[in-house]
Amino acid sequence: MRARVEARLRGAPDPAMNIGRFVVLERLGAGGMGVVFSAFDPQLDRKVAIKLLFDRRADERERARLVAEAKAMAKLAHPNVVGVYEIGEHAGRVFIAMELVQGRTLRAWIRERPRSWREILAMYLQAGRGLVAAHAAGIVHRDFKPDNVLVGDDERARVLDFGLARLVAQPSSEDADASSASTSEASITKLTRTGAVLGTPAYMAPEQIQGGVIDELVDEFAFCIAMWEAFAGERPFAGASVQALFGNVTRGELRKPPRGALPGWIEAVLRRGLAADRERRWVSVVALLG
After folding, report:
1. Which of 173, 187, 189, 141 shows the shortest CA–CA distance to 285?
2. Which domain CATH number covers 85?
């Protein structure tokens, strides 16, 4: 069975393949965390999306944490969060059954055509409300970025993949020791890949890079990077290498946005959310959204 699943991950799924009780229909895509299929739930007579996570040998404690978070997400009914229906294991891999959204990522939505600043602001406010709802339930995303927001054909933004970075990039104790011992570009790249530093480098807060406190202010920082990028067409922190990028982030060295790229008041709001000193940021995403 496991070999069959491995084969399916690299090509079109077997129409007869089941993941739990769900009947696989087609492969929708793949990313850094796993492969996504559309599937049919015969018990509730509905289509769902199934994310089958890559096996990164996460320990049982991490799996238990993911289960706990998925259960919390399943209880969280919010229009700006992708609904989680079920979590389980299939052929040794964790899978999550969730709401099937017909649409595209927020990054793709931005690139579809020129967007006014008001359109961009309205869509990011929706995504921000999704983060607020999760934070109120005690859930931190840890890897917010435009690729982790879906914009449905109904033009509603929905945030997905809460907390998954921690499971699929579980660090070893050896990596953790290396993180504290070296900040060379090679070690930073290795740690980012193996998981001692969790998340996507371009959207990381200083405390993620330095192994500090991970809470909703990490999501706030990533949200502000993504929103700045949507307006300016480039992220606020430059860096020709991961090491250079991380240096600019931890020093709080933002580059100026292109002239007229975003209203001054929005830039001021985002700059505060991007402060290297977390004590100088907005106290929460709620405060950021105003």
Report:
1. 141
2. 3.30.200.20
Reduced to 3 states, what is the DSSP secondary structure of residue 19? strand
Which amino acid is it at 290? G
Give residue 21's domain range. Answer: 2-98
CA distances from 31 to 127, 154, 253 (A): 20, 24, 30
CA distance 18 to 94: 14
The distance in angstroms from the start CA to the end CA of the chain is 51
Q: Are residues 77 and 109 in the same domain?
A: no
Q: Please indicate, yes or no, whether residues 150 and 284 belong to a single structural domain of this protein.
A: yes
Do 123 and 237 belong to one domain?
A: yes
> Which amino acid is residue 193, in one-letter code?
R
Which residues are designated catalytic?
143
* 232-262 confidence digits (pLDDT tens): 999 999 999 999 999 999 999 999 999 999 9
**Confidence band, pLDDT 50/70/90 cuts, at residue 16:** low
Of 234, 287, 275, 223, nearest to 258 by C-alpha is 234
Please indicate, yes or no, whether residues 27 and 127 belong to a single structural domain of this protein. no
Q: Say what the pLDDT of residue 182 is.
A: 34
Q: How many domains does the chain have?
A: 2
Identify whether residues 190 and 208 lie together within a single domain: yes
> Do 160 and 271 fall within a single domain?
yes
CA distances from 146 to 78, 102, 131, 161, 190 (A): 19, 16, 13, 12, 24
Count the Cβ atoms, other than its own, within 10 Å of residue 206. Answer: 19
